[in-house]
Write a sequence for this structure.
């Protein structure tokens, strides 16, 4: 947050943490590994905040709509991640695209897990098992979770859009209209 990713070094991190550079390398690894760990840590904090924002809502559709709005708001307002997306998008891009494997899989798994639980609990007809053209139902919400994560990340990476997503209510309207139908595939 102080220097940005480009200008930050492992030495800077070690100094701020009050440890030696060697300690950072031994415990965390190089700068790229440090960035990945910080992003994963922040992801865990986001998950807790999003879970708290949607906990009292009765249906998965309502939880997904509110979760989408909360994620956009939290990330855009985050001093590190939101700040870097605005100030150093070219630096953040690899961490949210080509090098995003662990974060992406964690986000997809988190959402797919919620969709599975909601389907088991009967929370709003989510990803109900249905017969496909071959007569077999898959019922696995992983594909739906992946689409939702990819759509959300794309709006964070490139906010220029014909969709108005500047505040929570606009984000909710978008989610109800375009994301909620994915729950009933």
């Amino acid at each position: 947050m102080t220097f940005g990713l480009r200008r930050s070094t492992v030495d800077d991190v070690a100094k701020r943490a009050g440890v030696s550079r060697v300690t950072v390398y031994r415990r965390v690894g190089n700068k790229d590994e440090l960035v990945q760990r910080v992003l994963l840590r922040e992801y865990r904090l986001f998950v807790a905040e999003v879970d708290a924002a949607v906990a009292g809502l009765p249906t998965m559709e309502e939880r997904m709509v509110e979760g989408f709005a909360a994620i956009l708001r939290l990330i855009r307002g985050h001093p590190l991640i939101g700040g870097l997306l605005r100030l150093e998008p070219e630096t953040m891009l690899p961490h949210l695209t080509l090098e995003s494997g662990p974060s992406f899989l964690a986000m997809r798994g988190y959402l797919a897990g919620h969709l599975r639980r909601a389907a088991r609990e009967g929370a709003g007809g989510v990803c109900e098992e249905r017969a496909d053209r071959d007569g077999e139902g898959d019922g696995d919400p992983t594909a739906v979770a992946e689409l939702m994560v990819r759509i959300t990340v794309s709006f964070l990476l490139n906010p220029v859009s014909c969709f108005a997503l500047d505040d929570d209510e606009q984000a909710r309207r978008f989610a109800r209209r375009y994301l909620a139908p994915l729950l009933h595939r």
